[in-house]
Amino acid sequence: MARKYEMKLLTRFLMAMVGIIAVSYVGANLYLGDEVISHQSLNTIEAKPVESEKEIISKQQQRIAELESALNDKKKGSEIYKVVDQMPRFPGCEMKDDEMAKKYCSTDKMLKFIYRNIKYPEKARDDGSEGTVVISFVVEKDGSIVHPKIVRNIAGGCGEEALRVVKKMPKWTPGKQRGQTVRVQFNLPVKFKLQ
Fold it and tell me: Which CATH class is domain 79-192?
């Protein structure tokens, strides 16, 4: 008759008042029936910050929104491109004849829109936070901005402020691939610099 061995991993956690979880003890027991026949102590100590309940819920809601978005995209059968023949442009430059002139004009108009609407967050100003935030979004076939999210952030609420401004943007001139209007992902860097 074969003997049945079972391995159990034992872990004990200690939660500190400052929101840090420390693994204080890890060990493994090898059982034969109810009898411990071997014990190995791994004695690992590791610390990591604990997310608040609000942060966990926020991340879960963001992930759900991303999954719903991906599901809707799949249902539409509409691929999101990252690079296309003609990238989407901020509106207001359609009267230009040359593609390069349209590109420079739209970039200029977009920067004016951003810096006219953006407010340096007070907390970031007080903390002296500077740097570049990157907001990613999709320009739909009709030029509307959807799925904006912060992909690179700095402290003090700068990412949230840049995201707020992107959500206010008017419809863009959509991107084109092989002459067809397509959905395009756009990554927009926004610099925050104290004067």
Answer: alpha beta
